[in-house]
Amino acid sequence: MTASIESTAALRASERDEIAVMHHALALGRRGAGNTWPNPAVGAVVWRPAADGPLVLGRGWTKPGGRPHAETEALKAAGAAARGAVLTVTLEPCSHHGRTPPCAEAIVAAGLARVVTALEDPDPRVAGRGHALMRAAGIAVEVGRCAPEAFRAHVGHIRRVTEGRPAVFLKLARTADGFAAAEPGRQLMITGPIGGARVHMERAMADAIMIGVGTVLADDPQLTCRLPGMAGESPIRVVVDTDLRTPERTALVRTARDVPTWIIAAEDAPLRHEAALRAHAVDVIRVPRDGAHVDLHCALQALGSRGITRVMSEGGPRLADALAAAGLLDEVTLITNERPLGREGIIAVRPRLGSALADETLFARVAPSIYGPDRMDHFVRTV
Known about the structure:
The protein is an alpha/beta fold and 383 residues long. Helix content is 32%, strand content 24%. The chain has a nine-stranded mixed sheet, with helices on both faces. A hairpin with a 2-residue loop joins strand 12 and strand 13 (293-294). The radius of gyration is 23 Å and the shape is globular.
């Protein structure tokens, strides 16, 4: 039994408090980023307005593997105090039966008076039915609080259920004079220690990290999260390798039994190379070609079909430009170190990426971040 209309009206807080609680829920949701796929990383807060600001009764976020959901975690923390209170959640509560009962039904059973959500869930299994179920039970439901911020938080889930692909977050480092490397096949350390730590933190918040085979051959990277105590948060490692040129001696192949490693290759790549990689526990995914390279749309569709929602691309300029040309970038971070290379090298931002970022109808530029000698310029897709 839900609260009366009079008590529901009394629960309305100032707009500032409503925004503050939703921002708190979004921050809680980020705790699950990178380890809840295929489910979205949702945050939820049970609270009541008070004279000195919101009184938080329970908090929750989606747990590893996607369950339990944020809403039921927040309700469990609030206990009986949830009756007649407000639930703020970053995405519409689910309404379908899966491995757990619908969150919308748990909310009704808890006797909440109001539910404030940021977005309707575009998943066809939900798509407004969670909101409708709660309204039918007499709960006041409001949708749209901090919607732009929530869309950015849940863009991976949204892309996967509407387009079949994960969201792609590109990280590209360059020297002060615009170079990504001194020469082909030679590694160049650009990012400083503070900026590097930030990048490793973002790796931990991704479902998968993706590079091209050129980066494998040039740098022999590990692609793990190397912050203290966070090795277990390393994402799936994905290599776009059209002709299966990744050598067995590379760090990625040698450690594939410890950190899942997937290689996306063309359908006609050599079978003997696939067998050698699979012997090291590398998973080879074959997709159609698009000319000389794999079809990137198909590659991302393949990742989406496996439940991946957030891909961090740390490949070099060639892969970055190809993703831009295919219209597959959702966010871009350009990391510029204060030191110049001082000689000719490999240009970091190639024409198609540069053109896309300069188009204000495609990308909005948001406030930059400074990490020691590194400036990070952020661009967010607007459509």
